């Protein structure tokens, strides 16, 4: 695929599937990438070079920045680790009883949140760092998203739980996904009013947190990431969702290798990018919304791997025309 000034591939990509891409808290320059190749990598996307790589004992399933010089990660070895970019040091913070699937930082509550296949969410105090509580979930945690001081957790069995991070004594809301199939990804609106949820069956739901009936009336779901081939519809998992912090619009990435940008409030697709080499595994907008990181890798959902499986992270400069709601 030809590179354009608006889009290029990162040099030194991971050697195996990318599990997560995350931009630094205040930058469109630093990108954290976790991978099944047992590394966490830090890239400078402006100069297109890999600044640091932290080798791990097992595949890494998620990562996040805490601030501009520290990051966290977790994966199949069940250990939450923290990295200091200035000293190039790494330390273990604590453990789950099964692989860690999700790692997020909540700035409003100043906690690191991990979700695991052991059916718990744990909170970690980044100041010490140490465990600040363990909270049972109804099933394996597949995805979670921080929404202000609330936490939205998606588990197996299509369960959705809304927690208040300032008071984890009880679950604030228990919901069931409005999509019929397994939940793949949840991300919350930057305006904190709701969240977007995707499933393995080419659908996305836009949900609102306010339980009042008039607000709940606004929720809806739509089909996407489906391709007609020889009169048959092929339906693909929607693996990734990323929000534009400025415009409240969002991108979705599917196993069809396509990235779409949506205006969730006006129920419109704003644009669709060209097809990428393989499935879209993860997406992240920079804080100012000027750059979108797109991880493309083979995700073993098709029966046969392609002849060439290419792991790549594309950096795309996006503009208002692609990401801003049409007035």
Low-confidence stretches at least 5 residues in length (pLDDT < 50)? none
Kindly report the oligomeric state of this protein.
single chain
Alpha carbon gyration radius: 19 Å
Strand order across the largest sheet: 1-30-29-28
Percent of residues in helices: under 10%
Query: What is the helix tally?
Result: 2
Q: How many domain modules?
A: 1
Key words describing this protein structure:
single chain; 327 residues; mainly beta; Methylamine Dehydrogenase, Chain H; four-stranded antiparallel sheet; globular
Characterize the structure shown:
By secondary structure, this protein is mostly beta strands. It has a single domain (7-322), classed as Methylamine Dehydrogenase, Chain H, CATH 2.130.10.10. Helices cover 2% and strands 52% of the residues. The chain is built from 2 helices and 30 strands. The protein has helices at residues 213-216, 320-323; strands at residues 7-9, 18-23, 30-35, 39-44, 49-55, 60-65, 70-75, 79-84, 89-95, 100-106, 111-116, 120-125, 130-136, 141-147, 150-155, 159-164, 173-176, 183-188, 194-199, 203-208, 220-223, 226-229, 232-235, 238-243, 250-254, 259-263, 268-272, 280-285, 291-296, 312-317. Strands 1-30-29-28 form a 4-stranded antiparallel beta sheet, with no helix packed on it. It has a 4-stranded antiparallel beta sheet with strand order 2-3-4-5, with no helix packed on it. The longest helix is centred in the middle third of the chain and has 4 residues, at 213-216.
């Amino acid at each position: 695929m030809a590179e354009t000034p608006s889009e290029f591939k990162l040099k030194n990509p991971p050697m195996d599937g990318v599990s997560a891409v995350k931009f630094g808290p205040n930058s469109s320059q630093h990108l954290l990438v976790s991978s099944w190749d047992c590394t966490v990598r830090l890239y400078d996307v402006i100069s297109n070079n890999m600044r640091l790589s932290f080798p791990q004992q097992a595949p890494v399933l998620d990562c996040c920045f805490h601030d501009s010089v520290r990051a966290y990660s977790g994966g199949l070895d069940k250990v939450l680790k923290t990295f200091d970019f200035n000293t190039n040091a790494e330390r273990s913070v604590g453990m789950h009883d099964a692989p860690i699937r999700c790692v997020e930082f909540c700035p409003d509550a100043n906690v690191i949140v991990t979700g695991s296949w052991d059916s718990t969410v744990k909170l970690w105090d980044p100041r010490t760092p140490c465990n600040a509580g363990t909270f049972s979930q109804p099933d394996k945690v597949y995805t979670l998203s921080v929404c202000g001081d609330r936490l939205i957790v998606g588990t197996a069995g299509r369960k959705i739980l809304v927690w208040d991070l300032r008071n984890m004594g009880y679950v604030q809301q228990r919901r069931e996904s409005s999509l019929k199939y397994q939940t793949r990804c949840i991300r919350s609106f930057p305006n904190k009013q709701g969240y977007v949820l995707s499933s393995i069956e080419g659908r996305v739901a836009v949900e609102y947190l306010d339980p009042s009936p008039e607000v709940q009336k606004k929720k809806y779901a739509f089909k996407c990431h489906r391709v007609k081939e020889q009169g048959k519809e092929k339906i693909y998992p929607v693996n990734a969702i990323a929000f534009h912090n400025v415009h409240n619009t969002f991108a979705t990435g599917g196993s069809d290798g396509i990235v779409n940008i949506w205006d969730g409030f006006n129920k419109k697709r704003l644009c669709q990018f060209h097809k990428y080499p393989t499935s879209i595994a993860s997406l992240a907008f920079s804080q100012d919304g000027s750059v979108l990181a797109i991880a493309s890798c083979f995700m073993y959902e098709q029966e046969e791997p392609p002849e060439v499986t290419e792991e790549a992270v594309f950096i795309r400069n996006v503009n208002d025309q692609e990401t801003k709601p049409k007035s």
